[in-house]
């Protein structure tokens, strides 16, 4: 599993900084990395951070196999409250092209309380940023 932890500065208020724990499990993880570590005008500003214990948002991107599921759940459990989950891509949302595989979770929402699901195979990096904005609206409304 490729995991990166980033502190992503979003304009959620002058005193609030969002730390994203990115669990890149397959190809969708590359798009998440592009979104979180891109240098476009629309990209958030990432700062290397520590571990699940400092994360506010868990991004699950890619195919959640039965082998990797315990690590995903352990990451979520280690995060402090309040915590939020973004499911990114068809695999994480529904199992995607592997929906009928015996060893793939048919949607991480069956295991975790997903707040925002970003569709696509893979979603564009901009779609992830839209998902973060949707989460922002949900948290601040
Ligand atoms: S949704 Fe598509 S791009 Fe994303 S991990 Fe699955 S197969 Fe790869």
TrEMBL record:
One of its GO terms (molecular function) is metal ion binding. InterPro entries: NADH_UbQ_OxRdtase-like_20kDa. It comes from the Bacteria. One of its GO terms (biological process) is aerobic respiration. Residues 51-135 form the NADH:ubiquinone oxidoreductase-like 20kDa subunit domain. GO terms for cellular component: respiratory chain complex I. Keywords: 4Fe-4S, Cell membrane, Iron, Iron-sulfur, Membrane, Metal-binding, NAD, Quinone, Translocase, Transport. It holds the Pfam family Oxidored_q6. NCBIfam families: PRK06411.1. PANTHER family: NADH DEHYDROGENASE, NADH-QUINONE OXIDOREDUCTASE SUBUNIT B 2. This is NADH-quinone oxidoreductase subunit B. It comes from Kutzneria kofuensis.
